[in-house]
Amino acid sequence: MVDGDTIDLAFAAGGSERGRLLGIDTPETVKPNTPVQCFGPEASARTKELLAPGTRVLVQRDSEARDRYGRLLVYVWRAEDGLFVNRSLVVDGFARTLSIAPNTSHRADLAAASSAAAAAHRGLWGSCAASDAGGAGP
User: Fold this and answer.
1) Model confidence over 77-111: pLDDT tens digits?
2) Active site (annotated) includes residue 28
3) What are the φ and ψ backbone dihedral angles of 24, each rounded to 5 degrees?
4) For a surface tag, which of 34, 88, 92, 123 has the fewest beta carbons within 10 Å of its beta carbon?
């Protein structure tokens, strides 16, 4: 795992890829020339907890396979229990939504989860000013 929304994927057939979780954005912790943002360390720790090394996952792509940095753009579910990791990070307030067309398959679900997290002041919503958390709102 690199940070809250960027992970390393190892494939059963061999090889690995850096992946960017679609539909979400977590506060920055490792972006060059950017200070660590409010709730960034907590978001990174939560992603690491949800996707501990060796965790088997199911990966789904959307319309575009890669971003401008060459990362595989993915939605991720844990194989053992079906947890939708991208959504879980939003529900618990560790991530905001980030919808970039044409990769919008789960936009409505993630937006609803974000609104509920913000209304309940969960995670970054209860700990950070909008400008400190890396975004302006759900």
Assistant:
1) 999 999 999 999 999 999 999 999 999 999 999 99
2) yes
3) -135, 165
4) 34
Asked about 20 being catalytic, the answer comes back as: yes
Q: Which residues pair with 19 in a beta bridge?
A: 7, 72
Give the per-residue pLDDT at 1: 55
pLDDT in tens, 18-69: 999 999 999 988 888 778 788 889 999 999 999 999 999 999 999 999 999 9
Q: Report DSSP letters for 44-69, one per residue.
A: HHHHHHHT-TT--EEEE--S-SB-TT
| Count of beta carbons in the 10 Å neighbourhood of residue 102 | 8
Which DSSP letter does residue 3 get?
S
Looking at 18, 42, 66, 71, which residue is catalytic? 71
Say whether pTM exceeds 0.85: yes
The DSSP-derived string for 7-35 is EEEE-TTS-EEEEEETEEEPPPSS-TT-P
Residue 26's nearest CA partner among 11, 12, 14, 36 is: 36
| Catalytic (active site) residue 56 | no
